[in-house]
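User: quick one, fold this
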Amino acid sequence: MLHVKPGLESDFEATFKKASKIISSMDGYLSHELHRCIEVQGKYLLLLTYSPHLKVR
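Assistant:
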């Protein structure tokens, strides 16, 4: 879960779009999803999927 300060949600979402390019370039990356909570303002769920065959050092 990610918690964003009230009033900064738009900035967070714009910055996350830029960060998505970095995230998607990581070794073993398959996908990612960012979901905004509809019940709590400023709360997000980030789901990352990486290859199970990725060797972690």
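User: anything notable?
Assistant: The CA atoms of residues 7 and 26 lie 30 Å apart.
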